[in-house]
Amino acid sequence: MISRPGFEHAVHTAINRSPITALLGPRQCGKTTLARQIAETRESHYFDLEAPSDQRRLQNPELLLESLHGLIILDEIQQMPGLFDILRVMVDRPGHACRYLILGSASPDLVKGVAESLAGRVEFIELAGFDLSEVGGDVAQKLWLRGGFPRSFLARSEDDSLAWREGFVRTFLERDIPQLGITIPAVQMRRFWTMLAHLHGQTWNGSELGRAMGLTDKTVRSYLDILTGTYMLRQVQPWHENLSKRQVKSPKVYLRDSGLLHRLLDIDTGHALHGHPRVGASWEGFAIEQVLSRIRPAEVYFWGTHGGAELDLLFFSSGKRFGVEFKFSDAPRVTRSMHVAVEDLSLERLWIVYPGSEKYPVSEQIAALPLQQVDCIVQESRG
Fold first, then answer.
1. CA angle, 281 as apex, 198 and 300 as ends, to 5°?
2. Cross-strand bridge partners of residue 236
């Protein structure tokens, strides 16, 4: 078992601070394992809301929960959305001392009533698959190829890992999506997901994708939001400056787990990955997830102009602006686009993250940074 002390500390802190802590993330990313580890450290009660036995126990939830003490863990809470209103009532009662840890595989945007019912009472923590800080830089290639889902990464062989990912995709489409009350044919959603895999790292163009699938812009946008809300996709929104330049106003779309991306692209080995035409885009998405797992900004953007200037990531810290570029290159060099981004966006610092091993300056405000040293971004942006 791979330890995840950063997330464990974050959850403990949130439980001590807020009456309700929501641990969110895709299925099979380790939420239940983490919750059970936390449960071992204090008085606790665990309910799996996908289990018929626990569903029966919670037929009168207010009566049952009122009789319990300590930490109450409700796993896959999106299966019983009516519990949100009950939790709100219970935590608002004077003297109510229980703490709640709720686990979910869908964002509050997809589970109706979460934001409204629990506003001001819940602290959100987003859990993803393993990252480099947890597994170690010596297995970076393995993590990139297999992705961060524990059962995929820890599988005994590449074939076992690939089989697990194929099973995950099928179960997600055939069971998980319908359980959210969403009625989309699994074949059609898989086709859409696969098309997005081929467009990984590109700017969203709903009209073009809709025409290719014979669907309306509104329909493909709803598919995009479903995959985003279930933590399969990341939309990086565009940043707009009051500039004379025409700027890109559509989000960039990435599959969040590189292993699932490779399954949908039929990439099964490291050799196939390095020979694939989308290898650079795959590495960019993988590197973005590694950086975001460290800096955890409140908001992150990309910036681009129709003249060709672009910045992969823009984030804010301590009132200053910072940028990150990703280059799948042994020795990346500064480009005119980078200089334009530094000047037009008034960046304090810009890092070029690449798969090498040496950190080196390329200009006064720009430095090349190996992926395995991205903790430097945290230190320098908060220093």
1. 105
2. 252
The Cα 170–Cα 175 span in angstroms is: 8
Reported as half-sphere exposure (CB side, CA atoms, 13 A), residue 212 has a value of: 13
Q: Three-state SS for 189?
A: helix
Provide the pLDDT confidence category of residue 157 given band limits of 50, 70 and 90.
very high
Residue found under tokens 């595989």: 105
Task: Look at strands 71-75 and 44-48 and give their pairing.
Answer: parallel
Residue positions counted in the chain:
383
Check if the beta carbon of residue 370 is closer than 8 Å to that of residue 354: yes
Q: In this structure, what token pair is assigned to residue 173?
A: 């489409």
Query: Cβ contacts of residue 155 below 8 Å, gap of 6+?
Result: 146, 161, 164
Q: Which CATH class is domain 5-126?
A: alpha beta
pLDDT tens digits for range 65-102? 888 999 999 999 888 888 888 898 888 888 888 999 99
CA distances to 50, 74, 98, 149 from 39, rounded to whole Å, are: 19, 12, 13, 22
Give residue limits of the domains in the chain.
5-126, 132-382
**Residue 231, token pair as written in the block:** 């933590």
β-strands 366-370, 252-255 pairing = unpaired
Sequence-ordered list of residues with C-beta below 8 angstroms from that of 229, at least 6 positions apart, any chain: 106, 107, 109, 110
Structure confidence by residue, pLDDT tens digits, 244-286: 677 778 999 999 999 999 999 999 999 999 999 999 999 999 9
Whether residue 176 contacts residue 167, with contact meaning beta carbons closer than 8 Å, is answered with no
Query: Under a CB-based contact definition with an 8 Å cutoff, are residues 334 and 366 in contact?
Result: yes
- H helix or E strand, kind and range, residue 123: strand 122-126
Tokens of 72: 């109450």
Q: What are phi and psi of 326, to 5 degrees?
A: -120, 125
pTM for the model stands at: 0.93
First to last CA, the chain: 34
Tokens of 355: 């798969």
pLDDT for 17 beyond 70: yes
Q: What is the DSSP letter of 266?
A: T
Tokens of 52: 């018929």
Tokens at residue 34, please? Answer: 């983490």
